[in-house]
Amino acid sequence: MKPSTFFKTLGFSLLFSVFTLLGAQAQMSAQWADTLNKVLQQCRMDENMKGAASAVVFADGSVWSGQSGHYGFSPLQSGLLYDIGSNTKTMVATITLLLEEEGLLSIDDPLSDYLSTAYPNVPGNVTLKQLLGHNSGIFNYTNHPNFGPEITDDFNVFWHPDTILNSFVAAPLFTPGANYSYSNTNYVLLGKVIEVVEQKPLHVVMRDRLFDPLQLSNTFLEAYDAHGMTLTGTWSGNQYVGDYHTSLLSSAWAAGGIVATPEDLATWAHKLYSGEVLTAASMDKMRTGPTSGSTTLGLGLFEETYKGRVYLGHGGTTFQNSQMHYSLDSDFSLVVMNIDNGLHDETERMFLKLTDVLEYIQQVVSAPELAKATATVKVYPNPSSNIMTVQLEQATNPVETHLELRDVTGRLVAQQTFLNHTTTLEKSSFGAGIYLLNLVQNGQLVESRKVIFQ
User: Fold this and answer.
1) Which residues make beta-bridge pairs with 342?
2) Which of 24, 58, 345, 423 has a CA positioned 20 to 30 A from the CA of residue 147?
3) Does some domain include residue 6?
4) Contact 81, 234 (CB under 8 A)
């Protein structure tokens, strides 16, 4: 996950749904499903993606998920598994910190305390914390020139972690602790440590400590966990490849071998980063590290400040791309998964566009001015195929009241004052779609309505 400051305007009037803000609130996932489905669909088309999926856990605990596009000849649908890639590292880091909380290890311990087997170019004095924070200097095995050709030579081959560590780790880049360099090798070594401490295979530890307790029933360490669910493959240009998982994900293992539904990954992000899994002290450790621009490089975590708000998360790349984060300010988690190989920047732009939408939703939902509503408005016909009339109650002073029409991104598409107590909106001015009509009185938002132009 990298900082980004650029966005594409959606370029059309988005259909979206908003609950009546002055009435009883329904679950946010149901009320905003149309919004998010339309944004996902339009972003996928804007970015020339063949397949993408997303999920959100809202502050009220409700979950939305959506899909757009195809995997092979089949349309994407709910209940499919996606590669979460390096988001796996957040789970390995969490288990390591849970073991520390229980006194079973210390992250300041050297690796040699746990692994008796020496691997080429892996210094035994490197600490678990340096592995967690990518300060070890250990070479990233996926950068080895032989790794890609050998892994892709036969997608049916199972790669054991020991084979990876013995075959693709070149000389260290720097002395442990001297610098920062992201390395998948760090997390393969941590997976080995976890197995030694727990005396169980990593996939069993993950299920016992995370997946079962947190009800992540559609999350698996691929090539280790048995499951009957469908794996999404990847698009490489116009060619679809659906059978790479055994080779690639077994080679990724603790560094990136998890597959999950978008809903499960969003649930994981929400539970972890909202403080349900680790103690406050462990979360502080996870959030501590060097900074690069607006990003703190923590222990299996990236902390970013974006548009003044703080997000905790990670990203992942296999032959797919995924992004996840949690908004500390607005208490939602967001996941985006794209099955087009190599479209990392495109995935990130979609991710940030959806983040903007979710923050706007939170702003609308929490608007304190709505409690002060004094105006009542009639809108007809609604839906309309051409012209819509907006009429104030006679008791409302039209001189002090105007209306705003906004799309889902919060962009103002129309602003009008009232002549006497009536004004009109014309479809030709801003296009078909569902909009939020805000009534503003004396500078305060006092009423909102969903309006539809067909």
Assistant:
1) none
2) 345
3) no
4) no
Residue 408 lies in a domain: yes
Q: Which two tokens stand for residue 370?
A: 């709505």
φ/ψ region of 72 (left if φ > 0, alpha if ψ in -120 to 50, else beta) reads: left
Q: Which two tokens stand for residue 17?
A: 């749904």
* Residue 221 and residue 173 in contact, taking contact as beta carbons nearer than 8 Å: no
From its phi and psi, is residue 79 left (phi > 0), alpha (psi between -120 and 50) or beta? left
Residue 22 lies in a domain: no
Retrieve residue 418's tokens: 């009232």
Same domain, 343 and 414: no
| Residues 369-403 pLDDT 10s | 443 445 577 888 988 889 988 888 766 666 667 88
Of the residues 346, 362, 378, the one at which a domain ends = 362
Say if residue 216 is in the same domain as residue 354: yes
Q: 202 is written with which tokens?
A: 């990593």
Given a contact cutoff of 8 angstroms between Cβ atoms, the answer to whether 40 and 68 are in contact is yes
Query: Using one digit for the tens of pLDDT, what is the confidence trace for 289-312?
Result: 999 988 999 999 999 999 999 999
> Where in the sequence is the domain holding 338, given as residue range(s)?
82-362
The C-alpha atoms of residue 127 and residue 275 are separated, in whole angstroms, by 25
**Residue 110 per-residue DSSP state:** B
- CA atoms of 272 and 275, how far apart (whole Å): 6
